[in-house]
Amino acid sequence: MCYYSVEVSLKIAYTKGNFGLRFFGCVNHKFGRSCKFFRWYDPLMCCHGRRVLRHLREKHERVNMEATSSVATEQNIASKHTLLVLEVTQLRREMESIKSKHQ
Ligand SMILES: [Zn+2]
Description:
three-stranded antiparallel beta sheet, binds zinc ion, Zinc finger GRF-type domain-containing protein, 1 helix, elongated, 2 domains, alpha+beta
């Protein structure tokens, strides 16, 4: 229960310093009401633990970005392939028509 006797919910922090730690927060916070209820559920980590977590989080973000950009590259290649197939089809038709004119 928070300061206004509202049920609190367990949430996960995504901030740089406390990434992944769970805390209790008031649902009214979302609705712009100024209930400042806040309590950590997990014990705070030591400096080393925070460093390791920050490192993992940065690595995770890098991998995500790489995955996103490789999807973009894949889509780019797929659309180029489609254009090439169309071009080849067009050239074949032209070749066929040239051939038939010379028979
Ligand atoms: Zn509250």
